[in-house]
Amino acid sequence: IADAINNAAGYGFNGLDEKGNPKWDLIYNLNIWNIEMASSFKMYVDNWNIQTAAWLKRVCYDRAPKYRTGLTFLLSALWHGVYPGYYFTFITGIPVMLAARAVRNNFRQYFITSKVRKLGYDIITWIVTQLAISYTCAPFFFLAVEPSLKMYKSLYFYFHIAVVIVLIILPNKPSKDRQRYYSKKSPLSTTNHLEEKEPFKHMNNNAR
Asked: Origin, by domain of life (predicted)?
């Protein structure tokens, strides 16, 4: 609905493509393909409620001297409202995001040497991402404390435990892209982070 309203007002017009067709993606708010095919927690978050995520990034993530991920998730919880379920979701999302980043930075380089390995990596990380999103976001819809805890107890907090184990075992190894980005970035910069390459890119191109 938000995209339709923006485009109806003309705000989404982004010029013409190479074939002369109008583009209406200037301020679009979600990328359906990247959401459904996200192979990382970050990719899912970056493509859902895009304009709000961009605002959170500019006002919090880019300006926080440290604990950027945690502070940004907490601000997002405050922005959504006062229901406890929001805080269950976003507080759980902090270690999930950090664990996903640790796994990616420690292992991804071993799977991008061939198309077959990369495809296998994308499939596995896609499955794990869907589980992570479902597990993390359930309290967002329950809203209250009791059903959220009941759900997590019924699952024995398995994802919380797995995330803690990952964070304890894996070293905090920043990616090369992140190192290059921050070496060029001023403390108050509000430019976008380097975009994570889309998984299943060959499938995406065929779909178009």
From this structure: Eukaryota
